[in-house]
């Protein structure tokens, strides 16, 4: 099955998160998505650990990424 219409195809969670942090910064990211890994001592590593096991949070991150890219 191809992912031609999926704008997230080929994007790793790490690259999505890094782009969001570069674009918004941790403070704004934490304001837009209120999860502790973004608001208290944030890091890529701790955020990835949380997002990989918490689907609802990952969904919010992916939706914000798509909005940032103008795809949603």
TrEMBL record:
Pfam families: VF530. GO terms for molecular function: DNA binding. This is Transporter.
């Amino acid at each position: 099955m191809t992912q031609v219409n999926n704008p997230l195809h080929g994007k790793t969670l790490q690259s999505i998160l890094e782009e969001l942090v570069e674009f918004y910064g941790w403070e704004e990211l934490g304001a837009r998505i209120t999860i502790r890994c973004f608001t208290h001592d944030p890091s890529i590593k701790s955020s990835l650990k949380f997002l990989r096991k918490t689907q609802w949070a990952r969904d919010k991150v992916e939706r914000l990424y798509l909005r940032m890219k103008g795809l949603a």
